[in-house]
Design a protein that fits this description.
Histone H3 K4-specific methyltransferase SET7/9 N-terminal domain; 17-stranded antiparallel β-sheet; about 210 residues; mainly beta; single chain; disordered N terminus
């Protein structure tokens, strides 16, 4: 092979190794499922996904097969479902999720695809559902949970994802009903209940 042909051959090999092509995936029905770019036979750039009814289900960004950057997900009615951020196929940073009617469902942060830091959750009627923090994907520290009408339902702390220490419970009118200590999700010591008049009485001893 002469020098010219050898250089041409090398150029073809180098160009082919970085081959870029468009790819389209289909449902069995024949409708489009996804469309995007392949680079070196891996998803690259923005890929658009569709429901069988042809509405967009997601707009995902890839770098050589790995999710990277802001990702958008949609309900089959066209409403925005979620906004996420990914880096090298791991979910990172802020994330926001919505109900199909557009009401905020939950928001917080991820680190290494695990829940991290403060998170808040809401009912579909927009009332707060629960709030607290995560460490390495597990609930930690103080948490408050609420009834759908917005009144407090229970309150207490987590250690390593387990309920720990004093927990207090309330009915949907805001009246305290029970309180007691937990040790790694297990009731311990004396628990109390509260009468309709608010008087505290011994309920059970779990020791």
């Amino acid at each position: 092979m002469n020098l010219f042909r050898f250089r041409s051959f090398l150029f073809f090999i180098m160009h082919f190794s970085d081959c870029v092509a468009q790819d389209t995936l289909y449902y069995k029905s024949g409708s489009m499922k996804a469309h995007g770019e392949l680079r070196e036979n891996q998803k690259n750039g923005t890929w658009t996904y569709f429901y069988p009814n042809a509405l967009k289900s997601a707009s995902l960004k890839f770098t050589y097969g790995a999710l990277n950057g802001g990702q958008l997900y949609y309900y089959d009615n066209g409403a925005l479902k979620a906004i996420e951020f990914w880096k090298n196929d791991l979910q990172e940073d802020s994330a926001t999720y919505y109900y199909s009617n557009g009401v905020l469902e939950k928001k917080g942060c991820f680190e290494g695809s695990l829940y991290k830091g403060d998170w808040v959750f809401f009912y579909e009627n927009t009332n707060l559902k629960r709030e607290g923090a995560y460490l390495l994907g597990l609930p930690t520290g103080h948490w408050d949970c609420y009834h759908e009408n917005g009144t407090i339902e229970q309150s207490g702390s987590f250690v390593g994802g387990k309920q720990q220490g004093l927990w207090e419970y309330y009915d949907n009118l805001g009246n305290k009903t029970y309180e007691g200590n937990l040790d790694q999700d297990r009731r311990t010591g004396v628990w109390y209940f509260f009468t309709n008049s608010g008087k505290k009485k011994k309920w059970k001893n779990f020791n």
